[in-house]
Amino acid sequence: MQPRLLPLKNKSILVAGGAGFIGSHLVDALIGEQPRNLVIIDYIFKGQSNPDNLKEARRNFPSLKLYTTNLTDYNQTKKVLLKEKPEVVFDLATIPLPTSLIKPYWTSETMLKIILNLCELCRKGLFKTLIHLSSSEACGTAQYVPMDETHPLTVRTPYAACKAAGDLLVRSYYYTFGLDTAIVRPYNNYGPRQPIIGSYAAIIPRVIHRILHNQRPIIFGDGKQTSDYIYVKDTVKGIIAVYKNKTTRGKIINIARGQEISMNNLVRTISEIMEFKQKPIYKKSRVADVRRHFADTRLARQLLGFQAKIEIRQGLEETIAWYSKRKANLGNED
């Protein structure tokens, strides 16, 4: 028998990192759940968050509130929580992976302070439920496939190490203090609003950007490395499903399509959709690149009945259309 689902209707909800790529899509989806109060805390980190991502949300939920509070500041975060009294917090606050390669100490300190503050404030009763977003980066390159939730944490970057540490901290608070928590581990996300930043920018928006400017796509390494891509609107449905199902508490849940695609095939598909005939440029592989990502999605199917609906080509077509409409505002590649 399926457990009774927890409603979000008429709840007070806070989204940490809600002005970011995935966060803003989650905010849009949460509005459809008809919450009583919807609040965002986002420090608006350059290249990660953008208030423009919330334009649609503000139209659909005029009372939406955005606090540019630094979540590493325990007292300021506590002040917002005391004022808004959220029942559930979705934690998507993070620092981009590329920053951890330039400022590893600051990135690590920031990411760990954020999750520690939220765990501690939850422990002290300032909100009831914490849904924390992990990352497939916490697992590193696949040691076996498909990669289930118990896959070793073979991290390669400070960012990945912090994501792995965050998972361990959240679970420790669940086991030690009985916190109402669950961890979502999304795999490689793509879709509208994904930023284009620096040499470690996500491949999908970067390839689209280059083709829109009649430049050949760049592939780092031999292009045989794989990722498990999931369209962002599928991801946020999975996140909400994790909250609604109490059997997820204390668990890590993979949210992915459960299919892998090589970078060669990914770039080829984008080029076909955009009718771009030139071959990609191959460059030396990068230190942060993983060789293989391919998720085991059985647990999400068993517990949540969740399965990603949007196939890669459909998602790419929608993503390309979104960037194409904004070509004039994209600027030149970093």
What are its keywords?
334 residues; alpha/beta; Rossmann fold; seven-stranded parallel sheet; two-stranded parallel sheet; 12 helices; globular
Low-confidence stretches: none
Could you give me the name of the CATH homologous superfamily of the domain at 12-189 and 231-257?
Answer: NAD(P)-binding Rossmann-like Domain
**What amount of the residues lies in strands?**
5-15%
As laid out across the biggest beta sheet, the strand order is 3-2-1-4-5-6-11
Instruction: State the helical fraction.
Output: 25-40%
> Biggest β-sheet: count, sense, barrel?
7 strands, parallel
Quaternary assembly = single chain
**Large-scale geometry:** globular
CATH fold description of the domain at 12-189 and 231-257: Rossmann fold
What is the arithmetic mean of pLDDT?
A: 95
Rg, Cα atoms, Å: 19 Å
Based on secondary structure, the structural category is alpha/beta
What is the number of beta strands? 13
CATH class of the domain at 12-189 and 231-257: Alpha Beta
The CATH architecture name of the domain at 12-189 and 231-257 reads 3-Layer(aba) Sandwich
Order of helices and strands: EHEHEHEHHEHEEHEEEHEEHEHHH
Number of helices: 12
| Cα end-to-end separation | 52 Å
